[in-house]
C-alpha cells in the first residue's frame, strides 16, 4: 500500500527525476485515486491529461500522436482504460535503468517515507509524483503534443512552478532529469545543481545514455535514503565521488559532472 499524503512540507533536499519509459503494470489493486496523490492541487490538470490520453489512445492516429511504433500497441491500448487499471506505488511502476540502479522497487518503511519526501518524479501524465504515490502504468512522454492541451511541457510548466518551488523552499535541488522533462519546470531562485554524467574511454569523454541513467540512479538512491542531506553543490560532489565507477568530478555553480570509467 502507498502512503497517505497531506499537504507537502518543505524538504531538506529535492531530487527531481524523470519517469522511466519502461513501466511494470500492476496486476491487481485498486485504481488510482487522483485526489490522494501528492500535490492534490494538480488533480484537475491530471484528470484533463488522463482523459485526453485515454481518448487519443483509441484513435487511428494514436501511434503518431504518441510517437510510438506498433510494437507498443499493448501499452497504447492500456492507456484507454487508464482510470480503471490497477495502481501500485510509483517506486515499483517505474522500472527503467535509473530506478533499478536506485533500488527503488525495494524501498519500504522508513526508506520509502524519506524518498517520498525528497523525490519528485516529473511526469507527462501526473505533473509530479512521489515514489509512494499509487499510479497505473501508462505510455506518454513529455515531448508529446496532446490534442487541445498542446505541448505537455508547456502545459505542466504553468502548474508545476508554484507546487515545486514551494516544496523546495531553501533546500538544495538535485536535478537528474532529461531535457524534455527539464522543460516542464526550470528552478529559478533556488540553489539547484543539474547532474551530468560522462564516460571516459581512451582519454576521451562522451555521454552514454544508459550509463548516465545508471549513475544518476545510484546517486538518487543514496540521496533518497540516507539521513544526512547535502546542503550545497560541494556536499553533493562528495556524495558523487563515493559512487561505484566514479573517477572524476567537475562542479560549477549550477552543474555537477560525474565522470565514470568505461
Q: What does it look like?
A:
The protein has 262 residues and is an alpha/beta fold. It has one domain (13-261). Helices cover 35% and strands 19% of the residues. The protein is built from 10 helices and 12 strands. Strands 1, 3, 4, 8, 9, 10, 11 and 12 form an 8-stranded mixed beta sheet that branches. Strands 2-5 form a two-stranded antiparallel ribbon. Strands 6-7 form a two-stranded antiparallel ribbon. A hairpin with a 2-residue loop joins strand 9 (192-201) and strand 10. The protein is globular and about 50 Å long. Mean pLDDT is 94; it is low at 1-7.
Short description:
This protein has helices spanning 43-56, 62-66, 73-79, 90-93, 97-102, 109-118, 152-168, 179-182, 209-225, 233-241, and strands at 13-17, 88-89, 119-123, 127-129, 134-135, 145-146, 150-151, 172-175, 192-201, 204-206, 246-251, 255-261.
